[in-house]
Write a structure and sequence with these properties.
Strand order of the largest sheet: 6-7-8-3-9-10
Distance between the termini: 75 Å
Low-confidence stretches: 326-332
Number of strands: 10
Radius of gyration: 36 Å
CATH class of one domain: Mainly Alpha
Mean pLDDT: 77
Structural class: alpha/beta
Largest sheet: 6 strands, mixed
CATH architecture of one domain: Up-down Bundle
CATH superfamily of one domain: ABC transporter type 1, transmembrane domain
Shape: elongated
Length: 578
């Protein structure tokens, strides 16, 4: 900033020196009384002034080049930092945030909006500062040349700038609306492309293309309204400012004709007036950029100001929950102790419907507990609360005796391993996807985890083995292969608490048997919660708890539950008698 500011001042001063040189050329070099003397001397005096002009132009060129480099660097630096800050803030948000804001909207703000900020910082601000310096310097030199005419220009400029500033507010509002429509179309495209197989399977390409075309048309119409307003603002500024200056210059011409000003002074005044007028015209365009970037900045600041609802004790303004000690989280070598004490929870989007109602459940270290029940019974909610994606409205959840609300969310989640039904695989190679479970793991540890998850069999058949790129969302792998990579990732993490959400649902019978054996081996020495709809996979669990409509309705081993003839027995009868 200092280098750019210094270069800007040098370039501006060089620009302001040019009219002075022209005045000297006209009044001294080409005045009728000195032309004969100058010709007799061979024109050396005039040559000096032209050399001086070239020197000023050289200084102007160097100052402009240095300013351009540093200001462009600054724009890129600010944009990179802003994108990183916004993205880091978004990653800390809880699920409620993403229920109200689509991923495509976030991406639009990270790309389109930050690009507008980059244009502002890297170009428009530089132009604005340069022209502001030229405007101020030009006014000072106008006053030095002719105070009376300069006073008239200043008075007229004050009158004409007020309506320009008032109209600029409308440009800002229209810019925000335009960016919102662009974000809507980006969000729609992102959502559709992420489900491209479903779109093509239902032959809805034309339908989706029409939907995007409609969204793009809305964005276009909003952009047209913004552009029209900005064009009017620019035209208004130029007409009003140049009209005022032309009027004052006409008065100056009258003064020359009356002998109250020299031709050189009028030339100098005209050049400075041109500098002032050009500066105002450029500043009006910069104002348009600023108004547009202000709309983008508002949207980015909304993300930067967003605060997650799930926070650690030191981030809570009033924290009655004592901080949980890190040493207490890891639990014993046999796993972590988990307890739910009269826990009730309603999702923010469904406040009238209880996802869990008065749940009390004690899980001993090293115990394997299976959660079963109909869809919507509350099983997945238990996992969401364990991971502190949400906090319950009433009741307490404890890990090794400590209230979960006393943990930092990231610290808590480092001690929990999750294998979800929708196995997420990133667009990297197999090795890095598994290492995601523990970033400092060695290649040998990654291979050992893959072997334990029975994933090394298919990895060895891939073109580059562990270095095979799996494509976006793992599109080059089958569902079962993605799930085994997810299991290997959780095994590599080696947490005291393991959450398995239908972890073998995408596997064929042969692979399921192998992975089930691997999971049973992995469950030893740690506490494991398993969600399963296929009851055959959890008959060997230490305990099975049955959920229905957010309540725990039964608990026991497979044999005990079947003998009691409740909901579990009915579910088992439907599956095992097929």
């Amino acid at each position: 900033m200092a280098a750019a500011g210094g270069a800007l001042l040098v370039a501006a001063l060089a620009s302001l020196a040019i009219p002075v040189a022209f005045r000297q050329l006209i009044d001294i070099g080409f005045a009728s009384r000195t032309v004969q003397d100058e010709m007799a001397r061979g024109g050396g005096h005039v040559d000096l002034w032209f050399l001086a002009l070239f020197g000023v132009a050289t200084v102007l060129a160097l100052g402009t080049a240095v300013r351009f480099y540093f200001v462009s660097w600054l724009g890129e630096r600010v944009t990179a930092d802003l994108r990183a800050a916004v993205y880091a803030r978004v990653l800390r948000q809880d699920p409620v945030f993403f229920e109200n804001l689509r991923g495509g909207e976030v991406l639009s703000r990270l790309t389109a909006d930050t690009t507008l900020i980059q244009t502002l910082v890297g170009t428009s601000v530089s132009m604005g500062l340069r022209n502001a310096v030229l405007f101020a310097g030009g006014l000072v030199m106008l006053l030095a040349t002719s105070a009376r005419l300069a006073g008239l220009i200043v008075g007229l400029l004050v009158v004409v700038i007020v309506p320009i500033l008032l109209y600029g507010r409308r440009v800002r509002k229209l810019s925000r609306a335009s960016q919102d429509r662009v974000a809507d179309s980006s969000a729609l495209a992102g959502e559709t492309l992420s489900a491209i197989q479903i779109v093509q399977a239902y032959a809805r390409e034309a339908f989706e293309a029409a939907r995007f075309r409609s969204a793009a048309e809305d964005a276009f119409q909003a952009a047209v309204r913004r552009t029209r307003a900005r064009a009017i603002l620019t035209g208004l500024a130029i007409v009003l400012v140049f009209g005022a200056i032309v009027f004052v210059l006409w008065l100056g011409a009258q003064a020359v004709l009356q002998g109250r000003m020299s031709a050189g002074e009028l030339t100098q005044f005209i050049l400075y007036a041109a500098i002032v007028a050009g500066s105002v015209g450029a500043l009006s365009e910069v104002m348009g950029d600023i108004q547009r970037a202000a709309g983008a900045a508002e949207r980015l600041l909304e993300l930067l100001a967003a605060e997650p609802r799930i926070v650690g004790p030191q981030d809570r303004s009033a924290a009655p929950i004592p901080p949980a000690r890190a040493a207490g989280v890891a639990g014993s070598a046999g796993g972590a102790a988990v307890s739910f004490e009269s826990v009730s929870f309603h999702y923010p989007s469904r406040p009238a419907e209880a996802a869990l109602a008065g749940l009390s459940l004690q899980i001993a270290p090293g115990e394997t507990v299976a959660l079963v029940g109909p869809s919507g019974a509350g099983k997945t909610t238990v996992f969401a609360l364990m991971l502190r994606f949400y906090d319950p409205q009433s009741g307490v959840i404890r890990l090794d005796g400590a209230d979960l609300r006393g943990f930092e969310p990231t610290e808590l989640r480092e001690r929990i391993g999750l294998v979800s039904q929708d196995s997420v695989v990133f667009s990297a190679d197999v090795m890095e996807n598994i290492r995601y479970g523990r970033l400092d793991a060695t290649d040998d540890e990654v291979r050992a985890a893959a072997s334990a998850a029975h994933a090394d069999e298919f990895i060895a058949r891939l073109p580059q083995g562990y270095r095979t790129y799996v494509g976006e969302r793992g599109v080059r792998l089958s569902g079962g292969q993605r799930q085994r990579i997810a299991i290997a990732r959780a095994l590599l993490k080696n947490p005291p608490l393991l959450l398995l959400d239908e972890a073998t649902s995408a596997l064929d019978a042969r692979s399921e048997q192998a992975v089930q054996a691997a999971l049973e081996q992995a469950m030893r020495g740690r506490t494991t919660l398993v969600i399963a709809h296929r009851l055959a996979t959890i008959t060997g669990a230490d305990r099975i708890v049955v959920f229905d409509q957010g309540r725990l309705v039964d608990s026991g081993t497979h044999a005990e539950l079947v003998a009691r003839g409740g909901l579990y027995a009915r579910l088992a009868a439907m599956q095992f008698t097929r």
